[in-house]
Write a structure and sequence with these properties.
Distance between the termini: 52 Å
Strand content: 5-15%
Structural class: alpha/beta
Helix content: 40-55%
Length: about 425
């Protein structure tokens, strides 16, 4: 097995949505199993440990490639060359696109050894809009709220439990010099607000749902309707706009900040509240100090405490010459030993919450913060809608929100109305709109 961090690949061209995949030529059935993950160097080491255990258990060699940037673009280039990797581990949100392009093979959950130990909710994350499965669950997670505990305690503020209290704390962090350096250089909330890959809507979705709004709402008959211009959505977006434009508690440059660029604001003492994934615990424990920040229950909005819940699937890619080896790896990845290796990875786990119901979160992590993540996922988390390809909806929503927050326009209903028109056209194009 070898690990390679890919910076440049030589294949060019893109495959269009809706194009079926067929291999350019027969692959070598004796070649190592080519496996890709979207990983930085730290998480790649955890995957290396998992694949080493797989090789030892099965004798199947893995050619592992960790791709830190432009993962989706490189996959599309390999698809255009009709030479896909054998296996991908990637976001559950990519399932619709991969299925619509014909890049992934169908999975029968009952045919997967150990599949009955996987939670029903996890299997649902691998189900496409046609009702069939095209991935094997690997990891789950829920967004969490991180707060600079030392700042909060210094200012004598309580743990926020509502939106109003959250804004009060963010305002205090922005205006009351919580780090005591005499400079106005701290900010209340950290936002990865770039439109790249729709990140702003990824961050904003939890708050939109907490306010009673939505991007797309299910109709109960397998279809969806656009809900981004509902009264509840407008109210939620107005509240978010206020964070940028009225109380001004967001860090400078937020609307061009990626997630990778956002993390240093929290760990270097520039921002005090961060809605993010639990995979950052290990990083912040090391860079900031475990005792200087806390993980709190999600403060409630008008409609509750819903947060975005996502995960990763194992995708068995089309055109592989080694379907038995593909399946063997998927079955190993959902086994308790592999799930626990992934959870114990340092500084960050690649399995955040196990999809295998026989793996005990409390016993494995021995960390009450992960107990909170698990309860939040079970009680409050929801995924993005199960349409054939949610990415256009996420992207267009991110661009509209970015415009609203950047311009500080008062015409939120008008902006969201224009967005709703565009999303309705996309919903109709994907065949998911209500007649």
């Amino acid at each position: 097995m070898r690990s390679l961090l890919i910076a440049v690949l030589g294949v060019v061209g893109l495959v269009g949505a809706g194009c079926g995949f067929s291999p350019a030529a027969a692959k070598d059935p004796t070649a190592p199993l080519e496996v890709w993950t979207r990983s930085n160097a730290a998480s790649a080491k955890v995957y290396e440990a998992i694949f080493a255990a797989f090789e030892q258990a099965t004798g199947i060699e893995v050619d592992y490639k960790a791709v830190p940037i432009d993962f989706d673009k490189w996959i599309q280039r390999r698809a255009a060359a009709r030479n896909l990797p054998d296996v991908l581990i990637n976001d559950t949100g990519m399932l619709g696109l991969y299925h619509s392009q014909g890049l992934v093979t169908e999975i029968q959950p009952t045919s997967i050894a150990g599949g009955t130990d996987i939670t029903d909710r996890a299997w649902d994350s691998a189900r496409a809009s046609d009702g069939h499965h095209y991935g094997v669950p690997f990891s789950a997670q829920a967004m969490v709220t991180l707060v600079r505990r030392d700042w909060r305690e210094k200012l004598g503020r309580p743990v926020p439990t509502t939106w109003a209290e959250l804004v009060e704390l963010a305002t205090a962090f922005t205006t009351q010099d919580p780090d005591g350096d005499g400079q106005a250089d701290t900010y209340g909330m950290l936002v990865p607000g770039t439109t790249d890959r729709g990140y702003l809507s990824w961050w904003a979705a939890s708050y939109l749902w907490q306010g009673g709004g939505d991007i797309l709402a299910p109709t109960g008959d397998g279809g969806y309707r656009v809900a981004v211009d509902s009264a509840e959505s407008v109210a939620a977006v107005r509240w978010l706009r206020g964070l940028f434009c009225d109380s001004k508690v967001i860090q400078p440059g937020a609307l061009t900040t990626s997630t990778a660029d956002a993390h240093p604001f929290f760990e270097t003492g520039k921002a005090g509240i961060y809605l993010t994934g639990p995979y950052n615990f290990g990083r912040f424990d090391k860079s900031l100090g475990k005792d200087r920040y806390e993980v709190i229950p999600t403060p409630a909005g008008p409609a509750g405490t819903t947060v975005l819940g996502e995960g990763e699937n194992v995708y068995l890619m089309a055109g592989s010459a080694r379907p038995d080896a593909q399946r063997a790896l998927a079955e190993f990845l959902i086994s308790p030993p592999a799930q626990q290796i992934g959870m114990r990875g340092q500084p960050q786990p690649v399995v955040r919450l196990p999809v295998n119901r026989t793996v005990d979160v409390h016993a494995t992590y021995q960390d009450p913060r992960w107990d909170l993540v698990a309860s939040s996922y079970a009680e409050d988390a929801r995924p993005f809608p199960n349409v054939p390809n949610f990415q256009p909806f996420r992207q267009q929503t991110a661009e509209a929100l970015n415009t609203i927050f950047a311009s500080c326009t008062d015409d939120v209903p008008g902006e969201l109305g224009a967005l709703a028109t565009a999303l309705t056209a996309e919903l109709q194009a994907q065949g998911m709109a209500v007649p």
